[in-house]
């Protein structure tokens, strides 16, 4: 390592055990597959992060492929809900979780909903774009997403013409994608940006939108005044003006940081990340790597997992696959149906959990191991549970079922207490075995919904 | 399930710095519940059975719980047994409703010039009785009916000075009751903080998938609930006593981590705990429709085909069986961020919203609850008078709000400021500040000194809103 590259950004030097590896895998992916946290813990923080940033070999999908009810094929472009199932399956099985997680970050950052687009194929094409730029150049991503067909439809870019400018994309480009509300731009800048962005359009075919393209006739080629600069700006200039705006680097690094840390970014780290970002030529990877190696990432408080991460993670912990179409509505109940963010500002990461979405997570936890739920009416199952099992052993078995995730002491105490109470309820002989079976069922879902498993 | 996602929306809740700095907490779902909060005194069995009797089948299940003190039931029953509180139902038209397509100045030549494709025909709709320049959009005829019955007041140009055209910012201002990006609590949340109970999440209820920021408090619990009927926590192959223990353990998991040092853990723990409390409150709704206790089914028909009328129906039923609601927030049907091809979707959504609210008012009247409920219909801004060339309208400034209820005084709240003089962004100017409306509701409806939670509210000229 050369001296020149000595960065002012601190790097985590503390203990890197299973708990730290679990946090890394949950925040930078979708949680550990069986044994993965232990494996990663042996590598140390630096090599572990590198292994996530640059996984060896081509990305693969591990574990069982989706098998839906009645052997239905998965048709993500066509059938309702299958878009969600298709991506959810990738989250659960990918060998390149950071790429998939960053794809989710961009889906939230440039939040586009099929509710306004109405075309799963276009949504999936946009998803591919996000995946391609997962850890790549933000500049490239911004330029491409600006004329991505789903985005053009979603924010009226395809209807923004010289004759009748539409401010929709221009406003969000600055407020949500590059600068942030409260940054230094004016209503006049919104209107002028809209003019610069004019010219994208599409044709109409039998099956709807087709042939999205730039039409010089529809573009306003006059002089615009944006951020106190004048010029004959076009859509690429519109993007570059935002990237070069003095408020952009702060917005970018703060927003990226917020996906991985629950505490705000400030001080030297903010400054260091901004410098890193600008010097890299607006690339995501260097900033991301610095965030994943930062001491705060490991020492800071736990954060609430996005619900889709929690759900996909439960499948990963079990090496289980997607076996039901129910996931699309179950996920909706958790507050995160993929391809349907609530609005263009994406999901509100500070409001994942309330009394409504908590019930969704309960449904999701149950769904994640539905096919393994034990039947207290089944003779073979009862036979396996005919011998006394201590409350502690019941809890241990339920933990092992999930690959022994790290749980806090208060949670373990409640689980033990519950297991004990079930024992005292089984006060007649006929109850003993079926109550043990039900206890095991309940323990597994309680673990999956505990505050420990909801956070990382 | 969530069939009312806003179509073609812009920004609403920004994840930018502003959100981080300010509204994050205003919209952060459940508030922190401080450990060791006092349990309200009073435990009379008669009060408890008052609540449980209305639970029908649920009574059995509830009584079968042999492990858990009925503390919450008592607190709720106590609240329900006291003198009934006035209830506010806040109906948010999400996206910025085009007020000029609800009450249209159809004979105004400026209107016809600015709205070449969207203007309503000159002879359409009934004349608005409080300002002859305006006509009701025919799809909003239900509003006309309420207005002519003297149960609806319109603020035709409501807003605030130097309107912000960001959905997020403007909505935030309305929700927190101030043009401040720093405030982290809702105007109703602050009210509940003063008058609310430390153990009754139903006092501030979002009938939605997440909490309405206007309900965000700092001290007392509130709740979000999309559909009371489906609020169950069953588990395949876990039943009877073990199921009851399991549900208790879910609550205990929350309680056990309530003091965690990590905010995220506390949020998760709190969700677990509050969800189990809410589950108990809603047991009457969790039964089959056939076995539902009296009071659940509405006495009047509601429109079908949208979740908004269902949600209003539930609010009516919850009030009817005596659940202690105070501030309820719900979003109107559809979405109003109509940047393009406005007409069809707008009219469908507006009709559903208006028809549902009329049904709700009739429901309350039939149940004898109409004097207890005030409805406030609002939106974050109006839309630009000049349509945009995509047969839609862009974000504007002043827009409309309405008050509905049997005790509402029919009147114009402010005046219609018209299209001849617009602000520097070519948007409508306000004649009434939204804070004056909030203030009137607190002062007169809740008989609560509004200045306690909105310090400078008196400077906006509070109108008399009740008869």
Tell me the Rg of chain B in angstroms. 22 Å
- In total, the number of domains of chain B comes to 1
Please give the oligomerization state of what you see: heterodimer
Name the structural class of chain B. alpha/beta
Number of domains of chain A: 3
Short description:
The complex is a heterodimer of chains A (456) and B (467). Chain A has 456 residues and is mostly helical.
Verbal overview:
The complex is a heterodimer of chains A (456) and B (467). Chain A is mainly alpha-helical and 456 residues long. Chain A has three domains: 3-299, no CATH class; 307-370, no CATH class; 376-454. In chain A, 54% of the residues lie in helices and 4% in strands. Chain A contains 24 helices and four strands. A two-stranded antiparallel ribbon of chain A has the order 1-2. In chain A, helix 14 (267-279) runs antiparallel to helix 15. Mean pLDDT of chain A is 95; it is low at 1-5. With 467 residues, chain B is an alpha/beta fold. Chain B has one domain: Alkaline Phosphatase, subunit A, CATH 3.40.720. Helix content of chain B is 34%, strand content 9%. Chain B has 13 helices and ten strands. Chain B has helices at 17-26, 45-53, 57-64, 71-81, 109-114, 141-148, 167-176, 187-195, 240-256, 263-281, 307-320, 342-366, 434-445; strands spanning 87-93, 103-104, 135-136, 152-159, 204-206, 223-224, 327-331, 373-379, 399-404, 432-433. An eight-stranded mixed β-sheet of chain B has the order 6-5-7-1-8-9-4-10, sandwiched between helices. A two-stranded antiparallel ribbon of chain B has the order 2-3. In chain B, helix 11 (307-320) packs parallel to helix 12 (342-366). The two termini of chain B are 40 Å apart. Mean pLDDT of chain B is 81; it is low at 1-72. At the A-B interface, helix 10, helix 13, helix 18, helix 19 and helix 22 of A face helix 1, helix 7, strand 6, helix 9 and helix 10 of B.
């Amino acid at each position: 390592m050369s001296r020149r590259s000595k960065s002012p950004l601190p790097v985590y030097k503390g203990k890197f055990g299973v708990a730290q590896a679990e946090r890394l895998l949950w925040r930078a992916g979708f949680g550990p597959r069986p044994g993965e946290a232990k494996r990663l813990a042996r590598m140390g923080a630096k090599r572990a992060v590198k292994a996530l940033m640059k996984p060896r070999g081509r990305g693969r999908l591990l574990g069982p492929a989706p098998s839906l009810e009645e052997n239905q094929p998965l048709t993500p472009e066509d059938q309702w809900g299958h878009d969600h199932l298709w991506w959810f399956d990738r989250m659960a099985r990918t060998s390149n979780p950071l790429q998939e997680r960053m794809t989710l970050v961009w889906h939230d950052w440039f939040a586009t909903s099929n509710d306004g687009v109405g075309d799963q194929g276009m949504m999936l094409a946009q998803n591919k774009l996000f995946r391609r730029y997962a850890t790549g150049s933000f500049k490239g991503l911004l330029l491409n997403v600006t004329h991505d067909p789903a985005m053009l439809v979603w924010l009226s870019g395809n209807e923004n013409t010289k004759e009748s400018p539409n401010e929709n994309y221009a406003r969000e480009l600055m407020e949500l994608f590059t600068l942030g509300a409260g940054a230094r731009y004016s209503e006049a800048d919104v209107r002028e940006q809209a003019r610069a962005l004019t010219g994208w359009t599409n044709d109409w075919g039998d099956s709807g939108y087709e042939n999205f393209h730039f039409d010089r006739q529809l573009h306003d080629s006059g002089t615009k005044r944006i951020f106190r600069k004048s010029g004959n700006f076009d859509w690429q200039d519109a993007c570059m003006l935002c990237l070069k705006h003095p408020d952009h680097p702060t917005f970018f690094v703060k927003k990226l940081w917020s996906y991985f840390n629950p505490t705000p970014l400030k001080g030297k780290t903010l400054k260091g990340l901004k410098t890193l970002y600008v010097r890299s030529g607006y690339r995501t990877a260097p900033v991301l790597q610095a965030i994943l190696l930062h001491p705060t990432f490991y020492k800071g408080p736990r954060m609430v997992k996005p619900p889709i991460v929690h759900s996909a993670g439960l499948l990963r912990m079990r090496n289980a696959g997607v076996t039901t179409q129910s996931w699309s509505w179950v996920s909706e109940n958790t507050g995160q149906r993929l391809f349907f963010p609530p609005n263009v500002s994406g999901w509100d990461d500070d409001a994942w959990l309330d009394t409504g979405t908590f019930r969704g997570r309960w449904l999701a936890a149950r769904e994640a191991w539905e096919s393994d739920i034990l039947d207290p009416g089944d003779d073979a199952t009862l036979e396996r549970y005919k011998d006394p099992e201590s409350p502690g052993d019941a809890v241990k078995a339920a933990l092992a079922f999930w690959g022994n995730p790290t749980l806090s002491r208060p949670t373990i105490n409640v689980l033990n207490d519950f297991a004990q109470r079930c024992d005292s309820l089984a006060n007649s002989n006929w109850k003993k075995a079926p109550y043990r079976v039900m206890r095991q069922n309940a323990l597994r879902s309680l673990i999956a919904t505990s505050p420990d498993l909801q956070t990382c | 399930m969530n069939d009312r996602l806003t179509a073609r929306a812009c920004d609403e809740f920004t994840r930018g710095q502003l959100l981080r700095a300010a509204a994050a907490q205003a919209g952060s779902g459940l508030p922190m519940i401080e450990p060791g909060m006092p349990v309200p005194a009073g435990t009379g069995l008669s009060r408890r059975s008052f609540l449980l009797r209305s639970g029908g089948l649920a009574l059995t299940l509830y009584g079968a719980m042999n492990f858990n003190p009925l503390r919450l039931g008592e607190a709720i029953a106590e609240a329900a047994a006291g003198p009934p509180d006035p209830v506010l139902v806040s109906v948010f038209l999400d996206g910025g409703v085009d007020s000029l397509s609800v009450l249209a100045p159809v004979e105004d030549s400026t209107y016809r010039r600015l709205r070449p494709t969207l203007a309503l025909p000159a002879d359409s709709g009934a004349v608005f009785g409080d300002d002859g320049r305006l006509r009701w959009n025919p799809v909003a005829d239900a509003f006309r009916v309420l207005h002519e019955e003297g149960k609806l007041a319109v603020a035709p140009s409501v807003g605030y000075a130097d309107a912000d055209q960001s959905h997020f910012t403007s909505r935030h201002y309305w929700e927190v009751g101030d043009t401040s990006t720093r405030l982290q609590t809702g105007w109703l949340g602050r009210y509940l903080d003063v008058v609310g109970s430390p153990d009754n999440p139903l006092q501030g209820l979002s009938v939605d998938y997440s909490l309405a920021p206007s309900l965000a408090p700092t001290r007392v619990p509130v709740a979000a609930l999309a559909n009371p009927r489906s609020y169950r926590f069953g588990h395949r192959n876990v039943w009877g006593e073990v199921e009851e223990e399991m549900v208790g353990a879910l609550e205990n998991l929350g309680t056990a981590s309530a003091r965690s040092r990590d905010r995220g853990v506390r949020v998760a723990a709190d969700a677990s705990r509050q969800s189990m409390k809410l589950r108990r409150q809603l047991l009457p709704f969790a039964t089959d429709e056939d076995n539902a206790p009296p009071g659940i089914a509405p006495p009047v028909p509601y429109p079908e085909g949208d979740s908004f009328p269902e949600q209003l129906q539930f609010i009516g039923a919850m009030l009817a069986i005596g659940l202690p609601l105070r501030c309820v927030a719900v979003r109107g049907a559809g979405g109003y961020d109509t940047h393009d091809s406005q007409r069809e979707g707008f009219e469908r959504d507006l009709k559903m919203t208006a028809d549902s609210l009329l049904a709700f008012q009739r429901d309350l009247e039939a149940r004898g609850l109409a004097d207890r409920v005030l409805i406030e219909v609002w939106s974050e801004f109006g839309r630009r008078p000049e349509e945009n060339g995509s047969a839609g309208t862009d974000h504007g400034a002043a827009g409309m709000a309405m008050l509905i209820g049997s005790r509402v005084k029919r009147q114009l709240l402010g005046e219609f400021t018209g299209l001849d003089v617009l602000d520097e962004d070519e948007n409508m100017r306000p004649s009434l500040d939204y804070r004056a409306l909030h203030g009137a509701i607190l002062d007169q409806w809740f008989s609560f000194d509004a200045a306690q939670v909105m310090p400078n509210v008196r400077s906006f000229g509070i109108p008399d809103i009740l008869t």
